[in-house]
C-alpha cells in the first residue's frame, strides 16, 4: 500500500504541474520561471542563496535563472545595504504584472484537480499531507536521508 500512495502522489503532482505548464506556456513562462517569480512575490528581497535553497538547486543554477529573468525585465537585483557584495532580488513592475496574470492559472488548476471533493475532504487531505511533510522534514533534519 505504501508504494501505491507514493506512486499516486507522484502522478497527481505530475498532472498538476503539466496542467499548469500548459497554461503558463501559452503566455511564454516556464514552471521554473514561475517558481522564481512566485517566490519573489512572497519573499521580496531574498538573496540568491536563499532562493537556491528554496528551489533546491545550486546557487549557480539559481543565478542563471535570475539572469534570464533579469534580461526579460521581470526581476531586478538591488544592492544589499548591509553587504556590498550581495544582491537582493525583487520583481519589476512587469514581473509583478506577470505573477498577477499567472495566479489565476494556478487557482484554476487546483479547482479542476479538487472538483467533486468536499471542503471537509480537502481539509483532511491537507492535514494528512502536512503530517507527511512534517515527518519527512523531521527525518531530514535529523540527518537521515528521506529515502532511508
Could you please describe the fold and organization of this structure?
- It is built from 6 helices and 2 strands.
- By secondary structure, the chain is mainly alpha-helical.
- The chain has one domain: Winged helix-like DNA-binding domain superfamily/Winged helix DNA-binding domain (Arc Repressor Mutant, subunit A, Orthogonal Bundle).
- Strand 1 (75-80) and strand 2 form a beta hairpin.
- The mean pLDDT is 88.
- The protein starts with a helix and ends in a 7-residue tail after the last helix.
- A two-stranded antiparallel ribbon has the order 1-2.
Helix content class: 55-70%
- Our count of domains comes out at 1
Strand order of the largest sheet: 1-2
How would you classify the helix and strand content by structural class? mainly alpha
Report the major sheet: 2 strands, antiparallel
N-to-C span: 18 Å
Gross morphology is globular
What gyration radius follows from the Cα positions, in whole Å? 18 Å
CATH homolog superfamily? Winged helix-like DNA-binding domain superfamily/Winged helix DNA-binding domain
Per CATH, the class reads Mainly Alpha
Counting DSSP H or I runs of 4 or more residues, the number of helices is 6
Task: Work out the strand percent.
Answer: 5-15%
The topology string of helices and strands comes to HHHHEEHH
- In CATH, the architecture is Orthogonal Bundle
- Unreliable spans: none
CATH topology: Arc Repressor Mutant, subunit A
